[in-house]
From TrEMBL:
InterPro entries: ESCRT-I_UEV_domain, ESCRT_assembly_dom, SB_dom, UBQ-conjugating_enzyme/RWD, UEV_N. This is UEV domain-containing protein. Residues 19-163 form the UEV domain. GO terms for molecular function: ubiquitin binding. Keywords: Coiled coil, Endosome, Protein transport, Transport. The lineage of its organism: Eukaryota, Viridiplantae, Streptophyta, Embryophyta, Tracheophyta. It comes from Ensete ventricosum (Abyssinian banana).
Length: 327
């Protein structure tokens, strides 16, 4: 296979790889100086081709117990089985990379298990595919490796759902359905309860208004009967008045002064005294109004009031004497 041409990746990936591979001393990564550029190139090209695989540094434990800080590409590989299927992997670049192939391991998601006797994956999760076994630098690279993994595992997925996971998934789905039904029933119950309370409240208001309307109708009937009675009385009074007017409209109108005639001389004198008393009272009232409006001087007002009071006194005394004599 031809050497992979350099492919630009994101600036953050380039910056991280440049920083990680430039360390010296105890913090330096255990890659040969002439291999650091190739390591950087392969990881950058892999991150560009598969953005779900991000380069990071981590502690790797060899089979003999040795530990080393190495670079790895960790993330998921999309599979062709469905648009959402993916394979969680970790690709470790060992110390002799790129002259030796990387170490590839699968991660087991919760609820999954490795298929028994899978030809490409060991029980520990270590992956062994033809591309790794026939690794030859500089013809092989990480991008082609991941493409080979995606093709192989799409044809024969390594994971199988465990019986307990199936049971848990079914139990979870059942619980979710039951919870959804309970929420729906609770919401429906609350809605129906609210509607029922609103209907009962409306019914109570309607009953109260019905009673008020009935009382109002009773009062109107009573008022109607009373008005009809008053109307009958008015009609009767109009008839009586009309009859009297028809009978007396041609008679000459009598003078108001002659409407009341004393029966004797004593009554005449009593009426004259009362009239004089009331006339004096009217004159003093007119004098009070004139004084308040400033039309009469105060001394003239006092003189006139004294005169009218004296006359009124005499008229009242004479009227009292007449009344005493009549008794």
């Amino acid at each position: 296979m031809a050497t992979l041409p350099w492919t630009p990746a994101t600036a953050a990936v380039h910056q991280y790889l440049t920083s990680a591979l430039s360390h010296r001393g105890e913090a330096a990564l255990p890659y040969a100086e002439d291999a650091r550029w190739t390591v950087r190139q392969h990881l950058a090209a892999l991150s560009h081709a598969f953005p779900t695989l991000r380069p990071t540094a981590g502690h790797f434990t060899h089979n003999d117990g040795r530990r080393a800080t190495l670079l790895r590409a960790e993330g998921t590989i999309p599979l062709a089985t469905s648009s959402s299927a993916c394979l969680p992997v970790s690709i470790w670049l060992l110390e002799a990379y790129p002259h030796l192939p990387p170490a590839v391991f699968l991660s087991f998601p919760p609820g999954t298990a490795l298929k028994p006797r899978h030809p490409l994956v060991e029980p520990s999760g270590s992956v062994s595919v033809p591309y790794l076994r026939s690794w030859i630098f500089p013809y092989y690279n990480l991008v082609d490796l991941v493409r080979s993994l995606a093709q192989l595992f799409s044809q024969d997925p390594p994971f199988a759902i465990s019986p307990s996971a199936i049971h848990d998934a079914k139990a979870k789905e059942t619980a979710e359905v039951v919870e959804a039904v309970q929420r729906h029933l609770a919401a429906t119950g609350k809605s129906h309860t609210a509607e029922m309370e609103a209907l009962l409240d409306t019914q109570t208001q309607l009953k109260r208004r019905k009673a008020e309307i009935a009382r109002g109708l009773t009062r109107l009937e009573e008022e109607k009967e009373l008005l009809e009675q008053q109307l009958q009385m008015l009609i009767m009074n109009c008839d009586v008045t009309g009859s009297w007017v028809a009978k007396n409209h041609r008679r000459p109108t009598a003078s108001l002064d002659g409407a009341f005639e004393p029966s004797d001389a004593h009554s005449r004198r009593t009426m004259e005294c009362a009239a004089a008393d009331m006339a004096a009272e009217d004159v003093m009232y007119a004098l009070d109004e004139a004084l308040r409006e400033g039309c009469v001087p105060f001394d003239a007002y006092l003189k006139s009031v004294r005169t009218m009071s004296r006359e009124q006194f005499f008229h009242r005394a004479f009227s009292a004497k007449l009344c005493s004599n009549s008794t």
